[in-house]
Amino acid sequence: MKKIVFLLFSLSSLSVLAQDTISKELVASYTYTFSVDSLQLSGEGANVLKREFTKAQYVLLGETHDMAEIAQFTNVILPILKKQGFNFFMSEHGNNGLQRLLQLIESEAEIEKALQSIYQAELARTGHFPMPFLKGEEDAQFLKTSLENEMMLLGIDQEYFYSFPFLFDALLDLSDGSANIIAAQQKAMAFIISEYKKLDEQKDYPFCAKLESSREIEGFFNSLDTSDLRIQNIINDLKLSWTIYALNQTNPRQSFVEQGALMKRQFSKLHDQLSLERYEAPKILIKMGALHTMRGKTPLGIFDIGDLVSQQAKLEGSQDLNLLFMFRYYKDAEEELGYFDNAEGGSNWLRQRKAFMLQGQVEQWTLIDIRGLEKALKNNKVFVYPPLASIIAGHDYVIIPPAASDVKPLME
To answer: Under 8 Å CB-to-CB from 20, ≥6 apart: which residues?
Structure first.
């Protein structure tokens, strides 16, 4: 694990490398800018990233969910990574739900319209989207690009909260379609829809605990041929997802522990399977929430997927490239340019992150070389606030997009 020298007192020195804490000037000396358009990355920071892509076996994008700029960045780097031999794209989705979605859109020429059609049907049924982090027009674009580049999309998370009816349909499609199975599925579906309505009315309703003990759902599962491993896998993954979600109401930290353990199992299982098929370690892009992708122990006290991938790379003698997205400026509906962080303000949260946040620009993308910065810190006695120490220990580069915005919803 990376080590940083901490000193809990100020040092009097004229050198910018000997401040009492990391200065914005020091960080600026390890900062590059670049641009992202619909076709390419350009600029000095882009050249740095492209060089890093050529060295990496695994690229991790630690994102803030549903941000348009991250989706646009993903869309542009997919063809670049494909040329470097990246054939796999792992995301924060349940794999059964993701494969169901891909199956439904695989014959469609217009991905955006296909997603709209699927989402319209699920909104009518449950009142909610069935897939997280694929709700925007920008998401539809990178999904289309990944398919055009023949990258295999794989989910390594639990099945999403509002995808359960979606997967009940998948189970029915995998069955022999007999009358008793259809009747059992309809009964189970009616139960789960009624439970969604109760949850909408009562936010702390023990929804997943109710699903776990449902006779209607168990009856549907019992009607299916579980010797079919596809059916058995969906049932097992649904039940595990319900357990994790139910834990979130009674023991949130344990829920995160179980979720992290699941993602690590899923990654290892798929990694080993792909390695056997290809006779070599696969090159994988991994796009997930930033709490999951960092190396070492996360702020939740968990060694998550990012740490496992780092260990896997060390085992192989390869490299993982860990990228973290931060935001300074944010566009909102109330003003032309909102300040997400008010980086000149005085809160402890901002003060501790200020040296990084102030690198952000309204119209330019910013890339901070964490590894280069770390070398400077090792050679100079500088106090590092814990949040920045955690970022430095857990990542290779920080990317700050220009003034950011939410994805544009596929459906209003």
So the answer is: 9, 10, 11, 382, 383
d(CA 233, CA 371): 41
Full-model pTM: 0.91
- Determine the 3-state secondary structure of 202 from DSSP: coil
The predicted-structure confidence for 284-309, as pLDDT tens digits, reads as follows 999 999 999 999 999 888 999 999 99
What gap in Å lies between CA 257 and CA 300, rounded to an integer?
A: 9
Query: For residues 288 and 285, what is the distance between their CA atoms, to the nearest angstrom?
Result: 10
Instruction: Measure the CA–CA gap between 219 and 319, rounded to whole angstroms.
Output: 48
Which structure tokens are listed for 266?
């899923």
Ramachandran angles phi, psi of 15, nearest 5°: -70, 135
Length of the chain: 412
State how far the Cα of 142 lies from the Cα of 297, in Å rounded to an integer.
Answer: 30
CB 287, CB 63: distance < 8 Å: yes
User: How far apart are alpha carbons 235 and 228 in whole angstroms?
Assistant: 11
Amino acid identity at 363:
E
